[in-house]
Amino acid sequence: MRPNRPRQGGVHKPKKSGVAGLTRRSRQSHTWTMVASSSVVAITISLAAWAYATSSSQSAPQTEIANATTSLPPQAVVVDPRSFAVLGINGPFRQSSFTEFFNPTNTTPPFFQVFHPDFLQILGPTGTIRAVAANPTFAFAHEAPIWVPDTDEVFFASNDGGALGMSDIDHNNQVSKISLKEVAAAIKTAGHGTAPVNVSVTKLDLPEAIQMTNGGTGPFFGNLILVNSGRGSLPPSVALVNPNPPHNTTVLLDNFFGRQFNSLNDVKIRPGTNRLFFTDVTYGFLNHFRPLPLLPNQVYRLDPDTKVLRVVADGFDKCNGIAFSHDGKTAFVSDTGANAGFLGNNQTEPATIYAFDVDPKTEAFTNRRVFAYVDTGIADGLQLDANDNLYAGCGDGVQVWNAEGTLLGKFFLGTTSANLVFAGDKRLVIMAETAIYFAEIAAKANKLSFP
Ligand SMILES: *[C@@H]1O[C@H](CO)[C@@H](O)[C@H](O)[C@H]1NC(C)=O
Ligand SMILES: *[C@@H]1O[C@H](CO)[C@@H](O)[C@H](O)[C@H]1NC(C)=O
Ligand SMILES: *[C@@H]1O[C@H](CO)[C@@H](O)[C@H](O)[C@H]1NC(C)=O
Ligand SMILES: *[C@@H]1O[C@H](CO)[C@@H](O)[C@H](O)[C@H]1NC(C)=O
């Protein structure tokens, strides 16, 4: 997915509604700033009250929340839903999910925006987030993040056809990697605090068959799985890539019974099956680097050995990210219909994550229901943690829901994240176009490497 990037600094821009509105706004903003106060006492009191109020709900046991009151990570800001449920007749309402962020405390990113006490279990008492690589002029870190445990490296693709992607119908995008050993060393050298560091980004030299990579997962039998959008007449494809030099490649699929796909977007392996599930969508056309689409936007299943191929879900506006629960029984697919490339954004169209049951026999996705609708931008790449909390790259960073679909909190970047990946337990690597963020938290990883 190649979203139009929300304007920088568009922090909860208030409605322009005259002098009365202005007065009301500043009072409201003052109240929220108080909630964000760095006074440990204030935070502890507010969380204690929160724990009391939520103890009768279906959330975590009160003891855990009570313990969390003594251990809020320094970069966390609590935004109790009760503090903004009523904005008032002249309240600071948002007009746009694409150009205005929801940041009522006006906190400077990056930070953890906490809506529910359970988010503190994910962050842990000492969670941190910082930028670890940045290039303001090049969207080098867009999607396809894959962690390779053997070398402790994360691979990813640059933006294909969108803002600052340096790629178009005449120029391929690039796949690169960073070393998390180098990240750890840079953080150690930087000492205390969460100031950004800037590790080296190494571009891979890949064969011509790999065009406009947009999705990735694995490792699968030790290889990266890349899904590629294609470029011009060069076909979209699903490919295995050796993560080590010479990065030799095996293309697994590049057509549907002779027709080229539209522009393949994202991919996951369904746990327990070794089968690849991937999305196809019209963004290559909508970003001027692919011809007119020939197929509906839909989700496919490929058996990499027999090459048996079938459609498992359709009926989307623009299907995009995909993920499975750890038992493989639930599938999640994001629909980014609200972003239509050169046709523009339309916030009355989907920015929605759907959940499905995976039929045990056919593996078709059934019983479609809304899992979450996102408040900022669109939900793009999807990942889960070991507790089946769902993480999505969104217009303001990474948003996290529990398995019931309640928004727990955000890794608030103030800019678009299109995808993210756990690098083993307690380490989250977040793609943010012109930067990569690294969060050291308490949550454990979902399994992505197979068999
Ligand atoms: C909370 O703290 C108490 C007292 O330190 C401890 O006994 C208990 O195990 C803690 N509970 C959790 C869930 O961490
Ligand atoms: C990080 O280093 C790269 C070169 O490796 C450079 O292009 C980039 O501008 C640096 N980023 C920052 C924020 O200094
Ligand atoms: C890369 O080449 C090696 C050696 O020929 C081969 O064993 C391996 O399967 C290749 N990997 C891919 C992804 O093509
Ligand atoms: C946005 O989408 C709605 C629903 O499809 C449509 O009625 C409306 O015309 C669209 N608006 C724009 C500006 O394209």
UniProtKB/TrEMBL annotation:
Chain ranges of the SMP-30/Gluconolactonase/LRE-like region domain: 143-427
Region annotated Disordered, chain positions: 1-26
Database matches in Pfam families: SGL
Xref: Gene3D superfamilies: TolB, C-terminal domain (2.120.10.30)
InterPro entries cross-referenced by the UniProt entry: 6-blade_b-propeller_TolB-like, Oryzine_lactonohydrolase, SGL
Highest taxon above the source species: Eukaryota
Signal peptide: none
Molecular function terms from GO: hydrolase activity
Segments traversing the membrane: 32-53
Protein name: D-lactonohydrolase-like protein
